[in-house]
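User: Predict the complex with citrulline.
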Amino acid sequence: MPSQKALIRRPSPRLAEGLLTHLERTPVDLALALDQWEAYAGALRTHGWETVEAEPADDCPDSVFVEDAVVVFRNVALIGRPGAESRRGETAGVEEAVARLGCSVNWVWEPGTLDGGDVLKVGDTIYVGQGGRTNGAGIQQLRATFEPLGARVVAVPVSKVLHLKSAVTALPDGTIVGYEPLVDTPSLFPRFLAVPEEAGSHVVLLGGGKLLMAASAPKTADLFAGLGLEPVLVDIGEFEKLEGCVTCLSVRLRELYV
Ligand code: CIR
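Assistant: Here is the predicted structure with citrulline placed in the model:
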């Protein structure tokens, strides 16, 4: 039976110490963050996803951004090697979780670095951003892992945002949506739709035309609704203060057969 599972990870009590690259630090309300995380997980469940929790990594402030620790294509997981050293402790628990879910496991090795937030899958095409957190050796290892499975890996430069998926994701028909001021080379994408808000460039495909999006992108939600899609908005404001977005709070495992 095909199953739709979403891997999530409970926020660390040290969440407020999370890394910042492009934003100034502002106080994070941990209790509110927990409420927002519960609501995010609830929205996934409401729309047909079984949520599975990775073991919490309380010593790692950024561990709630679980998508950065792994890339899954079909039943094969590639455990990343975070570009930020302070995040390297996050991968062990994620490795254990994806193995438990039935994935075969591969690893990015030194000198490679790879964050899952730099990897956007659109059908059999895997876009990978080369920038602050993912390097050329990591991209080579991604290719070596997934090209034999039929993936086409396309590397794109990322210099204006933290991760590739901080600026581009994809609609159900494969159209890439992005916030143009933060995309290095929009012309690298075959069908590119510019959106009016940075947070509007982050969509999680829930299935059936439904898109999980941040409540901070109302204009983009209207744009997508006009295209016949159904935005489902969640407030993730406390995570946005730490440069997180809807995509990085879960790993969607669409194609597992368990
Ligand atoms: C970090 O800098 O690593 C975290 N504070 C935010 C990670 C967000 N992840 C993502 O965009 N994929």
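The chain has one domain: 2-257.
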